[in-house]
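Q: Two folds, back to back.
A: First:
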Amino acid sequence: MPKTLAEIKRTMDEHIGKPLRLKANGGRKKTVECNGILSETYNAVFVVELDQKENACKRVSYSYTDILTEAVEITFLDDNNEALAVK
C-alpha cells in the first residue's frame, strides 16, 4: 500500500465499486475478516458495504490512518475473487 494518506485516498478512489477483502483488528487479539464492496470515500474515511451472507451489519467505515498504521488490511479482488496487486 502507499505510504501517505493522500496516496491511500487516491488508491481507494480508483477502486470505488470494486469487491475487496478486509482484514481488521477486532480488539483483544481478535482479527475480523470479511468481504464487501468499497462504496464511498470521504476526506478522512471510507465506507465498505459488507456481504450480507457473512455479516450481521451492513456497512463499516475506517479511516485512511487505519490502513497507514496497518490496523486494517485491504485486498482488492477481481471478478473471480482473486487478489489484485495494489500499487
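A: Second:
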Amino acid sequence: MIEVKRVYDESASTDGTRVLVDRLWPRGVAKADADFEWEKVVAPSDALRMWYAHIPERFEEFSRRYRGELTDAERTAALERLSGIARKGTLTLLTATKDPEHSQAAVLQQVIAERV
C-alpha cells in the first residue's frame, strides 16, 4: 500500500515507513523531531518545480515531464528502494504542498505502484 500525506499531518501507526519526497525541507519542521526519512533525490528538478508552480491546470504536463526526469540512474535507484519498501508494507509519501493530489508525491505514488 502506498499513501500520500502532508508532512504536517499527524503520523499514524498505519503509515508504515514515512518518506519525505520534496526537494526542500518543509518550513516549521525541525529535523531533530522528524519521524520520517528524506529521499530528496526523487523530487522534481528546480526548473520543473518552478514551471509547474502548483497550477492544477498544468498537472498533466507536469506529470509527463516529471516521469521523464525519473528515468536517470540516481532516481531509478531511489525508486527501486521505495518500491522495495512498498512491497514489504505500507509506504507513506510525504509532501509539504497544500494540494497533495496535484503534487510530485501523487505522481510518485502511481510510478511506484506500477513497479510493485
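Q: And?
A: The mean pLDDT is 94.
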